[in-house]
Design brief:
Length: 329
């Protein structure tokens, strides 16, 4: 059942009738008494709205604004701007195992948390703050008074789709601030942390095929390349760069994906793709990168194969102000 907050129901009834909020509250109370307390306050408000001909839910299909999305909805479609990206973690309950990650997106009407399950968590590593995402076929749940849109393997998740724009975001959920840590203090459960460190080693970009429509991995098969969402596709290339960061307490391998690679190197997509055919030309870029002091926000994961912690960047600042950073220590 689609759940509408009681206050929202009262506001809608007031807005669509000539009644005051006090009048509506009185009608709700009278209805509950009429039914001898066998109905909840929310249920009574639904009945009052129906009696007055007030439509509490205007639309449940098509591309919805975030303030129109309600717990209980299914097959939800929306577009929003990424406000924050959080960790992807693996879980094993004994009867079920997998991966889950989350982010917050927003539009002109509000913000909401997006929870990604299974293969959809691969997209979390590819998005950054200010990206625009289009989501389709999600289902909405309530968690501690806030709504969440959940995406499974059948959902659509597009990053920066053509033609989609979002205005100034109205913040109704405050994103968690990244906590500053030294590399030696990082733990495998850290999902939103910030490090200030120096690049001491860098590696050539690695390229991989992605779907041109949704940005998900395109896997090779006997017919060419296949996207789980869009079937047979002609893939584009995305990329990642691994570097080692050192802050004097320890060092850690850090992976930068797509937009973070562009921010780290100060290059465009076209320039980075040129290194695919001329990898030797990347040597100068590596040398220029060595010794750079950078600020990176992201999440920590445990590499089970090598039994070590690794860092995945969600944002990077190539030119942090040393004086300002010392004040924040």
């Amino acid at each position: 059942m689609i759940q509408i907050p009681y206050e929202d129901m009262i506001a809608k009834i007031v807005g669509a009738s000539e009644l005051s909020s006090t009048d509506v509250e009185s009608k709700v109370k009278a209805k509950m008494e009429q039914l001898s307390g066998l109905i909840s306050k929310d249920g009574a408000a639904h009945i009052i709205a129906n009696e007055l001909g007030v439509k509490l839910i205007e639309n449940t299909t098509g591309k919805l604004k975030i303030d129109s999305i309600l717990p209980g909805m299914r097959n939800v479609e929306t577009v929003g701007k990424v406000v924050a990206v959080y960790d992807v973690r693996e879980f094993n309950t004994g009867t079920r195992s997998g991966k889950v990650g989350s982010m917050i997106i927003g539009d002109e009407t509000g913000t909401t948390r997006i929870v990604c399950w299974g293969d959809q968590t691969d997209k979390i590593a590819q998005v950054k703050v200010e990206d625009i995402v289009r989501l389709k076929d999600g289902f909405v749940k309530e968690n501690r008074g806030n709504k969440e849109i959940h995406l499974n393997d059948r959902s659509l998740f597009q990053i920066n789709p053509a033609g989609e724009t979002v205005g100034e975001v109205k913040a109704t959920i405050e994103p968690q601030e990244a906590s500053r840590k030294s590399i030696a203090d990082l733990q495998g459960t850290d999902g939103n942390v910030e490090v200030l460190a120096t690049v001491v080693q860098a590696f050539e970009p690695k390229y991989f095929e992605v779907c041109p429509d949704c940005g998900g991995r395109a896997r090779p098969n006997e017919e060419g390349y296949q996207c789980q969402q869009h079937g047979k596709v002609t893939p584009e290339f995305s990329y990642l760069v691994n570097v080692f960061l050192d802050d004097g307490t320890s060092n850690i391998r850090t992976v930068f994906f797509r937009d973070q690679v562009e921010a780290l190197l100060g290059m465009t997509k076209e320039q980075i793709l040129e290194f695919k055919d001329t990898p030797e030309a990347f040597e100068k870029v590596k040398n220029d990168l060595m010794g750079s002091l950078i600020k990176v926000k992201g999440r920590v994961k445990v590499n089970q194969m090598f039994d070590r912690l690794e860092f995945t960047a969600n944002s990077v600042d190539r030119n942090p102000d040393p004086e300002q950073e010392l004040k924040s220590e």
